[in-house]
Amino acid sequence: MTSTDFDKIAKAITNTYELIRLDEQPSETALEMLKEAEISLNEAKSYVLTKLQSIS
Fold first, then answer.
1. Which range of residues forms the domain containing residue 31?
2. Considering its fold, how many domains does the chain have in total?
3. What kind and span of H or E run contains 9?
4. Containing H/E element for 31?
5. Tens digits of per-residue pLDDT, 1-56?
C-alpha cells in the first residue's frame, strides 16, 4: 500500500463517520465498526512504516 492508499482509506472513514453523525440516531454498531476500521488503518500504517525502516 502507498501513502495515497492510506489517505484514501482515511478519507473514506472520515466521510462515512460524518454521514453517520448527520443521522439523528446514529447506529452504535456503525460507529463501533468505523472506530475499528480507524484502528486497523493506524495499525497498517505502523506496520508499513516499521517494515520500511527495517529495509533502510
1. 3-55
2. 1
3. helix 3-22
4. helix 28-55
5. 677 889 999 999 999 989 998 988 888 999 899 999 999 999 999 999 898 889 87
C-alpha cell of residue 35: 472506530
Rounded CA-CA distance 49/43 in Å is 10
Residue 24: how many other CB atoms lie within 10 Å:
4
Question: Cell digits for 20?
Answer: 453517520
The Cα 23–Cα 34 span in angstroms is: 15
- Rounded CA-CA distance 37/45 in Å is 12
DSSP conformational letter for 27:
-
Return the sign of the alpha-carbon dihedral for residues 39, 42, 47, 48. Answer: positive
HSE at residue 52, side-chain half, CA atoms within 13 A, is: 9
The pTM is what?
0.74
